[in-house]
Structure formats: structure tokens, C-alpha cells
Amino acid sequence: MKNINWDQHINEMASGYKNSAILLNALRAGIFESLGEDWKTVAEVADGCQLDHRATGIVLHALVAADILLQDGERFCTEPEARPLLLEGSPKTLKSILGHNLFMMRGWAHLDEVLQTGQPIRREERDEAQMRDFICGMENVSRISSQEVAAKIDLGSAQKLLDLGGGPATASITFAQAFPRLQCEVFDLEGPVNIGREQIVQAGLSHRITTVAGDFHTDDIGSGFDVVYLANIIHMMDEQHTLSLLQKSFKALVPGGRLLLKDFFLEDSCSEPAFGAQFSVNMLVNTQGGKTYTRSGVFQLLKQAGFTDFEVIDVGIHSQVIICLTPSGE
Ligand SMILES: C[S@@+](CC[C@H](N)C(=O)[O-])C[C@H]1O[C@@H](n2cnc3c(N)ncnc32)[C@H](O)[C@@H]1O
Description:
By secondary structure, the protein is of the alpha/beta class. It has 2 domains: about 5-85, Arc Repressor Mutant, subunit A (Orthogonal Bundle); about 140-325, Vaccinia Virus protein VP39 (Rossmann fold, 3-Layer(aba) Sandwich). It is about 50% helix and about 20% strand. The strands form 2 sheets. Strands 4, 5, 6, 7, 8, 9, 10 and 11 form an 8-stranded mixed sheet that branches. Strands 1-3-2 form a 3-stranded antiparallel sheet. Helix 11 links the parallel strand 7 (about 225-230) and strand 8. Helix 8 packs parallel to helix 9. It is globular, with a radius of gyration of 22 Å. It starts with 5 loop residues before the first helix and ends in a 5-residue tail after the last strand. S-adenosylmethionine binds next to helix 8.
């Protein structure tokens, strides 16, 4: 039995949106960039960001209350340990994924409609800045987990890796740096793949990582790969599309090749772990048929696609990688 203070628990659940809205909108308004490493007054921040003075003052004080800012009389400064996570260009930045969270939060406000219709919310296509937040946000979240995958799974004998839906190319860059024989190919839609290419050039790895723009549902994804890396993809899709992509991945592999399927997975109850159960609501709101899959449900789809053996590896706090083997053909 969990020992729960119900009054506190329900009140915290009911008001959780407040801190999200304060943090994410302050970030979008440019408040942390404006503060940089300095101490500033409300007027200096408001004028720097072209914001209303009264509103800025109230939000700055709420950020102090939430331990994100420090206050010294009339002046404010970002908490030094939070700063690298909030500022653009820092190696630890979460700025893009936080921007993506703001975009998601606006959709969650319509969960009432989704509950009635069972359909994701209808919204305009992401604009250029929102698409960049989404794809670069994936870099923010995949940076550490890709390093962990490279440390835990030996890809030293592999020569060709397909990073399917590879977005910002974070995994390919990490794997190419860790395994000198590996050639990677990032396959994604045109906009995201252009962002991936920028990252590859910046990492000086254009000779080791190529990009292909295409739709993995309808286009040929190539063949002859030793490894297919499918990270944070299947939760966007219903079971039919997931099975079809797993079958395509199987065909793209050489005999004895490996699919590395990274995602958040649920236990059979579908309510544990809490992160996965909550993430499934995110997919309900934002995708046609996406969800957090149970591990056992994914094993069934993998077997249907032709994979024979599985090993599960924990990566980061919430994710796992299922290493899926194809028959060796011997
Ligand atoms: C959640 S992101 C994951 C990105 C990357 N694998 C990672 O873990 O950092 C999903 C990716 O799938 C790509 N994607 C979605 N639908 C696609 C499609 N039909 N064909 C190719 N890529 C697609 C998106 O553009 C995005 O880059």
C-alpha cells in the first residue's frame, strides 16, 4: 500500500500545470536568455524581451518561488546550476525539448475533446521554429542515452548502421565516434534530415554518416545493414504501422543482423511505470494511434516480423533497448 496524503496529492496533481506554464512560457519569452549570467531588474528584463513590466515582475517572482531564479532585492539572476540547462548553445541545454514541451502542453489543454472523440487534436502543421524545437529537442533527450547505448552495446563488428527516423542524427554521431569502422545512414523526412545534416557537418563526420530523405512508411529504406537503430519511433504509431516498420527493418538487415529498438515500455498492467503511462496520454493527444507499448506486446510484434532472440537493456531513467536478433542464415 502506498502511503498517500490524499489532500496534498490531489491538490498537487490539479495544480501541476502552473509551474510548467511559468517555466515554459518564461523560456519562450526569452527571460533566461535576457538574464544570461547577469543580475537584472524587472524593468531591464521586460524591456530586453519586449514584455509587459507588471506581468514580467509577477512571473519573475514565481520563478524565484520555484527555485529557478535567485532574488537580491530588486534584482534577479538565474540559479547557476539551472542556467546551463536553460540557455541556448550550452552543451547541457534542454532549451529545444522545453520549447517542444510548450507546444505539447497547448495540445494537452484539449484532452477533454480527445477523450470524447478518441482522435488526436487537430492543429496546424508545425512551423519552422516548432519543427526545429522538436528535432533539436530529440538531440537534447537522446544525447546522454545514445552514449549509454554505445557504452552498453558493442557495435565494434558492425559496418553499416541504419538510423531510421534518426532526426538530429544524435545516435549516429555518437556511434560513429565510438566505433571507428561504422558507417551510418540517417533516414528521416526532409525537414528533420536537413537538421541532422547540419549536426553531422558540425561534428565533422560527413564522410562517415550519410542522410536519406524519405517516408519510412512508403519509401524504400535500403538493405544490407548490420544494425537498424529504431529509437523513439514506434510510440508514434498504431500496431499495424509498427508491425509494418518492424518487417521493413527485418528485411533491411543482413542475416544475423540486429535491430536495436529503443523506447519507453510499459509492464502488462499498462499503468507502470508512471512515466510510460503518462507518456501514452501524450501520444493519445498528438498522434493517430500512437501509445506507449508494453514490452510483451512488442515482443509479439517482433516475432511476427521475423526476429528470433531478444535481450533487454536499461538505458537512462525511462528507456530500454531491446536487442533483436535475426536468424544468422547458417
Ligand atoms: C521522436 S523522434 C526520434 C528521433 C531520433 N530517433 C531520436 O531518438 O532522437 C521521431 C522521428 O521520426 C521521424 N519520422 C516521423 N515520421 C516519419 C516518416 N514517416 N518517415 C521518416 N521519418 C519519420 C521524425 O521526423 C522524427 O525525427
